Amino acid sequence: xxxxxxxxxxxxxxxxPGYGAAAAQAALSRVQAEQNQDLADAQNEDGxxxxxxxxxxxxxxxxxxxxxxxSYWQKEAARPSLEAACALAESQYEAASxxxxxxxxxxxxxxxxxxxxxxxxxxxxxxxKEQDALRGELCVLLGWAHDASPExxxxxxxxEEELAGICLEEDLERAEAVNYVQRANEGRLKYTSxxxxxxxxxxxxxxxxxxxxxxxVSAKHRLLEQAREQYSQAQMEWELAESQMASAxxxxxxxxISVNQYREKQAESAGxxxxxxxxxxSLRQAFEDYIWSVNGLAAAE
Length: 301
Hints:
By secondary structure, the chain is mainly alpha-helical.
């Protein structure tokens, strides 16, 4: 079509009748030729590129299943704390009812205690409902029926050896080399004609992709370090709460504190334990997010 339009332009003579129409036809032919070239350049995928797309989709499904499993266990980790908070709120409401019956507490104050107990029960119910929903989604994602009852094993917390084995500089190089999107775009570039509009677009996309991959991996590495610090902090806070509860237990035996005061320490300790367990699961999530970004799923675009 390029050759045809060139010949057409060469053949027209300004002094001949119909010059305008011939020149317009030649210009139209050139436009059509350019459009056809862009269209051809856009059809730049072969079997290898399609295979990369399927592999990326498979990896994303695995990552999605891991994320749902971690979320499931985060709900499980929250359960003891919510149960302790519920028991404490109900105990406090019962005590408030006795005081209100003796004229030591107003009806408004009793109502407030009742609302706290109701809120604690609602939080526990919501957590259970959300956990059940996650279980069903996870079952379907892994090929089970929605209402199946497979054993969902606990998610391990990353070990110090795993975390210490991370080398950001090496991982940045690997992330760029194995990224699914980047490799597919590099493959598309091979089938894109030089000098066309699509060629320039693909070259810019690949250059930006390299920067985006490194930025994404670096960001996930920072999030992993933050999760690691938060996990250590949560562990210290839980250990302190355990020590305080043990002390409160001795005080309770000696009659120095009330049942509700002791239950407050129990609820506080349960809350810190839940926060510690959830911080460990958040560390696992951050670790998996980082590993997946290194192994091909970093955001290239």
